Amino acid sequence: MVSGRQERIKVLVLGITCALMAVVALGVGRYYLSPVSIVRVLLQACGLNMGMEKNPMAVVMHIRLPRILASMLLGAGLALSGQTFQMIFRNPLVSPDVLGTSSAASFGASLSLLLGLSSVLVSINAFICGLIALAIIYTVATRVRREQTLSLILVGMVVSSLFSSGTSFVKLVSDPNNVLPAITYFLMGSLSGVGFEELSLIAVPLLVSFVVLVALSWKINLLSLSEDEARSLGVNTRLIRLIAIVCATIITASSVAIAGNIGWVGLIVPHISRMLVSNDARKSFPSSMFIGATLLTLVDCVSRTASTVEIPIGILTSFIGAPFFLFLLFKEVRHDS
Amino acid sequence: MTLEIRDLHFSYRNNEVLKGLNLTVSDGEMVSLLGRNGAGKTTLMRLIPGFLKAPEQSILIDGKPVLQMSLRERASYMAYIPQITRSVFPYSVRTSILMGCSNRLSLLQNPGRREEQRVEEVIDLLNIRAIADRNMETISGGERQLVLIARALMQDARLLILDEPTSFLDYGNQLLVLERVQELAGQGYSCIYSTHNPDLALSHSTRAVVMKDGVIVFDDKPASLFGTDVLSNVYGRKIEIARTENGGMVCIPQ
Fold it and tell me: How far is B102 from chain A (nearest CA, A)?
């Protein structure tokens, strides 16, 4: 009982940290603004006259706000998606791209860049390709006479490999002077091109997926038990697994659609959340989302301020994620032995 | 509540493992299931809750085929207690017990205060308050079985199916777990458990069912095994059943 209250307090603290991070991130950059100025800008944007000039208003509201909102939404989403996949596949070492939807979305984006389509169409095509991959995976996996979670992962590997080959082919035939660098940069993951237009494309599917997954958190807890145990407790495992996979895939595809591949967040954040708060998804889902949002926003701040040229965010998340993954592997080995 | 198994046949591909089983379990009965490896015990324990598909009219609860029930309806009639439970993400004892109420929740519903209060009642009922604040990873095998029984009580199911509940337990914990099950049978629950230890079946059941090669070869009070060669035939070696001074019975291999 007491531990339940402590866990709720921890989630609250993580939420407050996340909000503070957002305020700080809005001020960080070549044009520095103090947290107090940021609050004044936000209040003025809400209609109150705080005496702020045009420049800070423009920088915050048109340049930084969509980017920070994107980093918050995608950080929260990737962490939530990663944790959902880890629980339904009963494997702490899987990440949001376990089913190959990231590869499919990357292929959609690369093909659109090759065809010279607008950034909005790049995002839409990436998203659609992610969902097509999921449809193929689910249709094939449910026809394989094996345990469902295993067949999903195996078919996911096959589909991922096919789409990765497709992306390689697109790179091979693209113009090495203009298009190839654009594809390569996009796939490395960056929030630099995100504006309100791109954000509005993914906001609704992303938020709906958040709500559904958080509402299903108790049932997702039960999916991490054995299949027989979960079913004997009256849980329709197939239905809940399908809904959870669709929502987690929508989040993953949305992320690739506007920001390219951002690795590791979906793998490491759920571990931090479980270590800090609880294994119970009712508490660790919100805490994962807050930690993911805070971490990605922090990394994005580093990405746009550390050097004169913006460092792709995927590179930075890998720098943090790879050593952390090794730490987890050693921890797992010690635990098993 | 009555579990009725009628002329149950079951095959894995072309290998028939159950050959026309008939069995009835009623309120307050504690049925032990004995037999060698491969006799069909585990298959039967997996068929009753519907993990494996039997012919529809073979397994009935109060006259209704189990396979015609939804998963939630099944869970309200019977609780399955596995040999071992191990989640990759181990939960606290309280959360694990709370999971038993899931059959009464709708798709998007989370357990509320009423369910949490019921968890406290069940903890007291099974006398496991000392471990209530611990994690499932840090408690012993016997305590874990008691938590699974507590979870089954949260289901409000009247039939408890225990698949080799004592397999991984030391002798003291074997007795502890079966004593708790016996108490529940005394309160009107129907219990069926499989075991490899005939001594436990003799001391902790109201009925012993012995299987051999997919057929029930004995179904009666454990005391009726006295003086028969049923166990000798099943296990392939001479086993005598002796009476103890306090009226109990023990198996003595010859």
Answer: 6
Give pLDDT tens digits for A60-72: 888 899 999 999 9
Query: Tell me: domain A71-292, CATH 1.10.3470.10, correct?
Result: yes
Q: Do residues B215 and B238 lie in contact, with contact meaning Cβ atoms separated by under 8 Å?
A: no
Q: Which of B75, B90, B133 sits opposite A234 (nearest CB)?
A: B75
Q: Is the pLDDT of residue B66 over 50?
A: yes
- The complex's ipTM works out to 0.90
Q: Mutation test of the interface with chain A: which of B87, B106, B148, choosing the one with the most A Cβ atoms within 10 A?
A: B87
* Ordered alpha helix ranges (H), A89-195: 101-114, 119-141, 148-173, 179-188
Instruction: Determine contact: A280 vs chain B, CB below 8 A.
Output: yes
SS3 content of chain B, % helix, strand, coil (to 5): 40, 25, 35
Residue of chain A whose Cα is closest to the Cα of B91: A279
> Strand B190-194 vs strand B159-162: parallel, antiparallel, or unpaired?
parallel
Residue type at A26 in one-letter notation = L
Structural domains present in chain B: 3-253 (3.40.50.300)
> Which of A91, A215, A236 is the closest to B108 by Cβ?
A215
Phi, psi of B228 (to 5 degrees): -100, 165
Each residue of B83-108: pLDDT tens digit?
887 788 999 999 999 999 999 999 88
User: In the predicted model, what is the mean pLDDT of residues A290-294?
Assistant: 97
Q: How far apart are CA B17 and CA B37, in angstroms?
A: 12
Question: What does the H/E/C string look like for A227-268?
Answer: HHHHHHCCCCHHHHHHHHHHHHHHHHHHHHHHHCCCCCHHHH
Structure tokens at A314: 């995927």
Q: What is the pLDDT of residue A2?
A: 46
B197 by DSSP, 3-state: which?
Answer: coil
Residue A29 is predicted with a pLDDT of: 86
Question: Do A84 and A261 meet the contact criterion of CB atoms below 8 Å apart?
Answer: no
Nearest to B21 by CA among B49, B51, B55: B55
